[in-house]
Amino acid sequence: MESEGHETEPGTTRPGGRTARVRAAVLEAAGDVLAEHGFAHLDLADVARRAGVGKTTVYRRWGTATGLVTDLLLDMAQQSVPRTETGSLLGDLTANARLVQRTLADPRQGALFKAVIAAATCDPKAAEALHGFYAVRVKEWAPCVRQAAARGEVPEDTDPYEVIRAASAPLYYRLLTTDLPLDEAAADRAATATAAAARAGAFGRGA
C-alpha cells in the first residue's frame, strides 16, 4: 500500500495508491463517454475533466483514445465475475450466458460494448484490445468444457473455446441486430442449444 502523501510514478499500479485512484476515475469517465456518445467522441481532455484529473496526466499515461479503450477493456477483464462451477455443462453454460445477458442488458454496459465493438470495426488497435478482452473471458470459462469432457458429457475432442463463444454469440447478435429484449430466456436458450450441440459433437476439433 502507498503511504500517505507519497506519489507513485506514472504507470505504476499500487493498490489504493494515488495512481490507482487516478486510473479508476479516468476509466470510469471513459466508460461514461463511450456509453453516452461512442468512440468517435472519446476525447482525452473531456475524460480528464470528467475525472477531475489534469489533461497532462491523461495524455502522458494513455496517449490516445485507443490507448484509453485498451486499458478500459483490460480493467473490465480483470474485474469480471469469475467462472461458476455448477457440476454440469448446461449449468455452467447457463451461468455464463446469464452473466453475459445481464452485462449487455445493462443500459450503460450494453451501450459501452456497442461503442467498443463499433470502434473495433475501423480501428486495428481497438480491435486488438477487444480481442484481448474476449480472449481473457473465454479462457476463464473454458475449463468448464474440459470438466464436462472428463465427466463424459461431451466428446473428448470438444473445443472448449468454441463452446464458450457459441454460448454468448446469440446474445451479441440479438444486441447488435435487433431491438428485441435481451432477457434471461434468451440466455437460457443460447446455453441449452450450445450444450446440446456440444453433446452431439458439433464442436469437435475435427468437425
From TrEMBL:
Query: Which parts of the chain span the membrane according to its record?
Result: none
Pfam families named among the record's database cross-references:
TetR_C_11 (PF16859), TetR_N (PF00440)
Give the InterPro entries listed for this entry: Homeodomain-like_sf, HTH-type_TetR-like_transc_reg, HTH_TetR, Tet_transcr_reg_TetR-rel_C_sf, TetR_C
DNA-binding region(s) in UniProt: 43-62
Record bears the keyword DNA-binding: yes
This protein's superkingdom?
Bacteria
Q: Where is the HTH tetR-type domain?
A: 20-80
Keyword DNA-binding listed? The answer is yes
**Keyword terms:** DNA-binding, Transcription, Transcription regulation
This one is known as TetR/AcrR family transcriptional regulator
